[in-house]
């Protein structure tokens, strides 16, 4: 390779073996010596990270990782060794040169500011030839073999965008317009929204504060291509001397090359479509502890009552040992589970233990779902919701339902005969006998009992709500940039968490309480604890709004869905991003983890539900059927059925057991991302249930596997 070659040439030069040096030079066709000076060092690695530096005669070697100059007019003998598109002048305007003793070093800024980012578009290419370059490459790709054509076609979109932006930046406005009009129709349909934004950038000034533009510039667009296809492309561009396109490939694209068969059109289409291309394969290699934490052990004192309970104890009785079985299984540590103390979790209070006991009793009466036994669905329709229903949540025990509204109110309803009551005033509380058995009943003020409580405090639409697992607290997040914590004992606001400067789209409590997550328009998700004013972690990496957030059942990870059309999985312990999933063609609006923690289901505006294997970091299924945005996803309590709710006014039930069985996650698939999705997802669809005219915004399985759905009736 070149690096070794140059090192050998340097050694020969230092040892005064001129003749050998010349022979090697001729053999390697490495022409053009510098003017009696030293040989420059060369650092080449993956595409886009190649660099050359020239050193004045008499100086030492140049070191450092340099940004690549966008074009090169190298002549033999002007101080460069490599005469190609990747040359860089040491005096390039975006780099600083420092001299320490004899060594010249180039330092390039890590985080580019807007002007530095845009200056990379200073090109010397002939603007009138851009259409010719692009159509030449297009012709080459369309005439190549089928197996390479699908892979190389991925280049069309990023090249189109960068060439257009380069023309606009260099003020060739008429050429840019003609280039856009000629080729924008060739791009894939899922890039239409991005192209609409792009078409509005017609002058250099427009590019300055444009976020989409900056995203595209600062993050390299990732393409996954087989080695054969890449070699074919490289050979074509070098033969055609097409430096302008080769520059863009080197500068702005990250080509993730894999060995093996090229991928088919279907395989590529399933994975592409996000704002920055696919995820690099390295991004999904980190180990993820997706197993569940061991349940704490405590006595179940209420079993005796159960025995006498009902006559038809037979059925639950049969299931009961099964449940204990699961209990004893969880006593052995799941090999994929994180250590118990990996992150500090709150200790169980007596009331929590009592609730767990109730949960176990309910679970004993749980209906086993499957293709032959579908759940009943109970739909809560919000009528006359002229305030605009924007968020819904239901408590784990299904006793309360909350709605967030566009008029900035939060409304809590009791859905059981038991009404909502507030705690008595301090004066009345002092009169209560604190030792009495029913003290928890006595502290409640009967005069305040009602089916509905309205919470005022936000100053903008409420986009997300979440009950705490112990039902003592409620979170709400709003366009006003705050997340509020409300007490369900007093129905007052306890804290307003300020961290986001823009609308907060979603918030969710951890399954263990105490921690919660929020995500918003500022493109970051934040992890909070209820007793801290400041966030504990900030998860940054998405290129657009974080639209939905979800805790993993073991609380060690958080999934976020974004308008950049990707899903990311974050480690709560250190804030690292451990998975990036691409494949959706529109903003993500719903996430659901399977109860065993192994799988993730995601729904988006493209009407598709995608299924992901978290351990292997792979897409394992695609469920097609909805015709509009999917706002709600939920697995049944034992994970047999996945329910999806959409703006198309339907609830659909899918066979999750069948979707996840016999997964092909061999090493080859994991290494190359050659996913093989079943052709027909209709085999997995168990039922479609229409509402009259109510978009589905929330789904919830009760502890006995009754499915609750909610939405606001829309009259149009």
TrEMBL record:
SMART domains: WD40. Residues 300-354 are annotated as: Disordered. Keywords: Nucleus, Repeat, Transcription, Transcription regulation, WD repeat. Gene3D superfamilies: TFIID subunit TAF5, NTD2 domain, YVTN repeat-like/Quinoprotein amine dehydrogenase. It is found in: Nucleus. One of its GO terms (biological process) is transcription initiation at RNA polymerase II promoter. Residues 323-334 have a biased composition (Basic and acidic residues). It comes from the Eukaryota. Its main location: nucleus. This is Transcription initiation factor TFIID subunit 5. It comes from Malurus elegans (Red-winged fairywren). The lineage of its organism: Eukaryota, Metazoa, Chordata, Craniata, Vertebrata. The gene is Taf5.
